[in-house]
Amino acid sequence: MGTSGLTLQFEIIALVALCVVLLLDLLYVVKRPHEPSMKEAGLFVGFYIALAIIFGGIVWWQAGSQLGQEFYAGWITEYSLSIDNLFVFIIIMTRFAVPRKYQQEVLMFGIIIALVLRAIFIIAGAAMIEHFSWVFYIFGAFLLWTAWHQLKDDDDEDKDSDSGIVKKLTSKMPFAKEYDGNKLRTVVDGKKLFTPMVMVFITIGMTDLLFAVDSIPAIFGLTNSAFIVFTANIFALMGLRQLYFLLGGLMNRLVFLKHALSFILAFIGVKLVLHALHTNELPFVNGGEGFAWAPVIPTNVSLIVILATIVIATVLSLWTPLGRNAAAKAEAAEAEKAAAKASIEGEQESGK
Asked: Which residues contact 43 (CB under 8 A, 6 or more apart)?
C-alpha cells in the first residue's frame, strides 16, 4: 500500500476528464435510445478497456510502479464485481420485462447511482482509514463474510429477498400494469400512476447499494489512495451498459465467476487482516504492538492472484466439459422456470 505520488493538478484534470466522458455517454443514450448492435457494443467496450489500460500506464509513469499496480489491481477487481452486478441487472430487466429499446437508459441510471453511492463510500472509507487504522480488521472480516455468503447463497433466495424489499418500499404507490415508453408517470382512465419503470429504478438502486458495500472495502484492501479507488471505480463502470448487450448470452456460461469473485474477496479479506495485524495499534491486542510474523502481501502479488483467478474461472467456464455441463444445467433450469412462469400466467389469464 502506498501514498499517492501524483500532483493535485493531475488528479483534478483526470477526474474532470473522466466525468466528462461519462456525461457524454449519458447524453448519447438520452438522445438516441436504442439497442446497440454487437459491433457498436464491442467497439465501446474495447475503447473503455483500452482507455483504462492507458490511464494505468500514465499513473505508472507519473507516480511509479507501486501506484500503477494498485490501479490495475483495483480496476480489475472492481470490473469483475461490476460484471457480477451486471448479471443481476440482466435478471432485473428480465423480471420486469423492460423493453430492449429503453434498457440502455435503465443501465445508465444504474451506473450513475452506483457511481454516486461508491463516491460516498469512498469518502467515508478514506476518512475512516486515515483516523482509525483498526478499521482494516472490520473490512477484512466483512470481506471474508461476504465471500462465504456469496459462495453459498442460492440466487433464487436473493432475488426473492430483493423483490420483497422493493415491494415493501412501493406497497403504497399506485402502479400501472404497462410501460409508457421511458416515462416514470402515466395516466390510465384519468388516474395518474407510476409506470413499472419506477419499480425497475428502485430495484436497480437497491442492488447498487449492496454492491457498493461489497466493492469499496475490497479495493481499499489494495490501495490507500482515494484517487485510485475512485478512478478504478469509474473505469469499472465505463462501458458497462454496452457490456450488458455483449454478455447477455453468456450469463449462464460464466458459471465459475461467482466462485472466482468469492476467492478474490476472501484473498483481499485475508490481506486486510494480515495488514491490520502487522500495523496493529489496538491497545488490547498484543499491547498495541504489531505482529512481526504477519506478512504484508505486495501489490504485484495481489495483481497476479486476481488476474490468474479471473483467467482460470473464465477458462473453466467456457472451455472445459465441467463448465459446459454446468452451463447446460443452468440454461435448462432457466428454461424450465420460464416455462413454468408462462404456464401460471396462462392459467391466470384463462381464469379471468
From this structure: none
Cell numbers for 220: 481499499
Quick one: which of 38, 58, 62 has its CA closest to 50? 58
pLDDT single digits (tens) 4-46: 578 889 999 999 999 888 788 777 766 766 677 778 888 888 9
Query: What's this model's pTM, rounded to 2 decimal places?
Result: 0.76
Query: How many CB atoms sit inside 10 A of residue 285's CB?
Result: 15
334: which 3 cell numbers?
432457466
Integer Cα distance of 228 and 59 in angstroms = 9
What is the spatial distance between Cα 97 and Cα 178, in angstroms, rounded to a whole number? Answer: 10
Three-class DSSP category at 298 = coil
Q: Are 90 and 248 in contact (CB under 8 A)?
A: yes
| Mean pLDDT to the nearest integer, 122-142 | 82
For residue 166, what are the contacts with CB-CB under 8 A and spacing of at least 6? 199, 202, 203, 206
Contact between residue 248 and residue 269 where contact means Cβ atoms under 8 Å apart: no
**Among all chains, which residue has been given the C-alpha cell 502479488?**
301
E strand or H helix that includes residue 263? helix 257-278
Query: Can you tell me whether residue 188 is helix, strand or coil?
Result: strand
Q: Residue 163: which residues within 8 A CB-CB, separation 6 or more?
A: 95, 203
Q: How many CB atoms lie within 10 A of CB 97?
A: 10
